[in-house]
Task: structure prediction
Amino acid sequence: MKLTVKDEKRKLEIEVLGRTHPNCLDYWDGNWVTSFLHVKIPGFQADFMAELRTEELQQFRDELKTMRDTLKGKAKLIHMEEAIQLEGAIDPLGMVWWKARLCHPVGDGAVLTFDLSFDQTYLHGLIKDLNDILYEFPVIGKP
Result:
């Protein structure tokens, strides 16, 4: 299951491999998903593992839906451990401008920041990718 954010020159892909703690059914332990981050931008390529949270993916998906439906606002994927921060903002002409920040290893590792952009018509594909991921790995429990 993959989520891909890209333009003509840059690509960020989040591949969700499975639940980190598949036997845990509580909110705090059960919502971690083992993910592989792939980044390719001119002059740089990075591939590393990160443990993401399903509620972070769900919030990002919901913000993308609002952005798509209103053609206003921002959508953010902010990882609790700061392996990835991705923020998109839509302008009045329908372009979505993204700022990405990745860190590996989390906490004190190397940091890569870059920007990318695409037309708002690509939001539908991002939302579909996230719906597919969240169908397979729904948020478990409540905080």
User: Anything to note?
Assistant: The chain has one domain: 2-136. The first strand starts at residue 2 and ends at 6. The first helix runs from residue 27 to 30. The chain is about 25% helix and 45% strand.
